[in-house]
Amino acid sequence: MLLNFLVAAVVAGTPLIFATLGEIITEKAGNTNLGVEGMMFMGAIIGFIVGQQTNNAILAMIGAGIAGGVGALLYAFLTVSLRANQIVCGLTLTIFGKGFSSFLGQKVMGTLVPASIQQFFVPRPIPVLSSIPYIGKIFFNQDIFVYIGYLLIIGATVYLFRTKPGLNLRAVGESAASADASGINVTLYKYIHIILGGALCGLGGAYMSLVTVPVWQENIIAGRGWIAVALVIFASWHPVKALIGSLLFGGLSIVGFRLQSMGIHVSQYLIDMLPYLATIVIVIISTRKNKKEDMAPADLGNAYFREER
Q1: Distances from the Cα of 85 to the Cα of 33, 38, 82, angstroms
Q2: How many CA atoms lie within 13 A of 47 on its CB side?
Q3: Which helix (H) or strand (E) holds 142?
Q4: Is 166 exposed, middle or buried (0-12, 13-18, 19+ CB in 10 A)?
C-alpha cells in the first residue's frame, strides 16, 4: 500500500517539478514571476487542444511549452523592457492565463485525450534501474514525462552550478549592474531564461491535462502554480531540492484519496487544505534561513535600468 502511494506521489508531484524548476530559472535571472499558475493553464489548454487535433504527444508537449513561453515573453517585455512592476505583471499573467484556458476550453469541456496520447504516456520501466528494490518501482517505472523531469533537474543543476552561462545567469540575479559592467548582456539573459522558465511551467500544465487528468475540466491546475512559487523558497533556489519538495507536495495532494481507500474517513475539505497549510509553514520557515546559498538572489524583483548604473 505504501509503495503504491509513493508511486502515485511521483506522478502527482511531476507538474510541480516542471513549474518549480521554471520559476527557479526565472528568479535566478532576478525576476519574480507570480504568473506560474497562468502559464500552467496556458500550457494545459494548448497542449490538450494540440493533442486532440494532431493525435501526437510530442507536438502536444511542444505546443504547451510554446504557450507557456509566450506568456513568459509578455511578462518579460513588460518587466524587462518596460520595467513595469513584476508582482503586478505576474498576477495579471495568472488572471490572463486562467481566462485564456477557460475561453478555449469551452469547446473541449469534458472531452478525452486521444487514446494514442494516453498510450504514449503509459508507464515504461527503465531496464536495470526499475529492478532496484522499492526505489526502482517508485522512480523508474513511470511515464516518459516523469523521466524528462528527472533529466531537466540534472541538466539545470549542471547548467546553473557547473557552466559559464549558468555563472553569468547567477551573476545577473545577484547584481544586474555588476554583471552588465562585466560585459554580460543582462537583457538577453533575462529574456532567454524568463521564456525558458515559462515554457517549463507550460509543460507542467500539460502534464495535468494530458496525463494526470486526461479529460479537460475547469480549473484543472487548482492552485499548483502558487504551490510551485512557495516550493522555490522551500528548495532554496536549488533544482535538486525542488525535486524533493515537489514529490513531498505531490504526496500531500493525494493523501486524501489513499485514506479513503483504506476506509479512513476524513473531511475532504481538511485534506484539501494540507498542501496550502504546508505552504504557509514553508514560508514561515524560510524567514529563518541565514546561509548565503539558501537566500534569494540579491537583485530579485528589482528592475534594471542601465543608465542608472
Answers
A1: 10, 17, 9
A2: 34
A3: strand 141-142
A4: middle
At 242 the three-state DSSP class reads helix
Report, as ranges of residue numbers, the positions in the chain whose pLDDT lies below 70. Answer: 256-264, 268, 286-290, 307-309
Q: Do 79 and 89 contact (CB within 8 A), yes or no?
A: yes
Paired with 124 in beta bridges are 142
Between CA 168 and CA 304, with CA 180 as vertex, the angle to 5 degrees is: 105
The whole-angstrom separation of Cα 156 and Cα 152 is 6
Burial of residue 84 (CB within 10 Å: 0-12, 13-18, 19+) is middle
Q: Give me the sign of the Cα torsion angle 160, 166, 167, 170.
A: negative
Q: Which of 44, 60, 19 is nearest to 198 (CA)?
A: 19
Residue 125, strand partner residues: 141
pLDDT digits (tens, 9 = 90+) for 31-67: 999 999 999 999 999 999 999 999 999 999 999 999 9
